[in-house]
Design goal:
single chain; four-stranded antiparallel β-sheet; alpha+beta; 6 strands; 17% strand; flat
């Protein structure tokens, strides 16, 4: 099995001249290996938790008055909603009013959710340390998932990667390569990994140190 350009495969050279192919197993192993080295480490866990705690603290500091303001916004939207509901009860509501009611209900729900989030306290040191320990303990489970079930690993990657891994065809003299580049939600992941293009002689990976 290989990865290759779908336009070239389905429509031919007239649409895309990129006929490079890379062995699927080699690409999967390269990407999963990079994720293991970059994201599935104790340092990565510490980085994510530290940044999360900083953002929670910053949000709490910036939104000291947020609950009161959100309560006022919820009350204002609720009054609008009640007025529209009264029209419905009187049988005087056109279709546009029904649509407006749905919008207001959605808006009120979002405001209530935001208010609830604003009341979440900053976790204490003991709680953070417990979470840090628990997350580190799950690293081995994630590694087993990544390597033990590649289809499931691909589903995990949809949440971990900012966007799909990008394949860039390159040439070094007479040799051709794919350059793979991707980014996780916590920072750079593959920058770059080079993989040899499929050829009659087989696959020749060229990975950076």
């Amino acid at each position: 099995h290989y990865y290759e350009c779908s336009f070239h495969h389905n429509r031919g050279k007239s649409v895309c001249e990129n006929g490079y192919r890379a062995h699927m197993q080699a690409v999967d192993e390269a990407v999963l290996g990079a994720i293991q080295k970059t994201a599935l480490t104790p340092d990565a866990v510490d980085y994510v938790l530290d940044r999360a705690m900083e953002r929670i603290a910053e949000r709490q500091q910036a939104s000291k008055d947020s609950p009161r303001q959100l309560d006022e916004a919820i009350s204002a939207e609720q009054r609008k909603l009640n007025n529209f509901l009264a029209l419905v009860a009187e049988g005087k509501a056109p279709q546009s009013v029904v649509e407006r009611i749905r919008e207001l209900e959605h808006r009120i729900g979002a405001l209530k959710s935001e208010r609830q989030s604003s009341l979440i306290p900053v976790p204490g040191t003991r709680d953070v340390n417990a979470l840090r320990k628990a997350l580190r303990g799950r690293l081995s489970d994630l590694r087993q998932l990544m390597y033990g079930d590649v289809p499931k690993a691909r589903q995990v990657l949809k949440n971990l990667l900012v966007r799909p891994v990008k394949f860039v065809p390159e040439t070094d003299g007479t040799r051709r390569y794919w350059r793979l580049r991707g980014e996780t939600t916590i920072g750079p992941l593959l920058d770059p990994i080079y993989l040899g293009v499929a050829s009659p002689r087989g696959f020749e990976p060229r990975l950076p140190p």
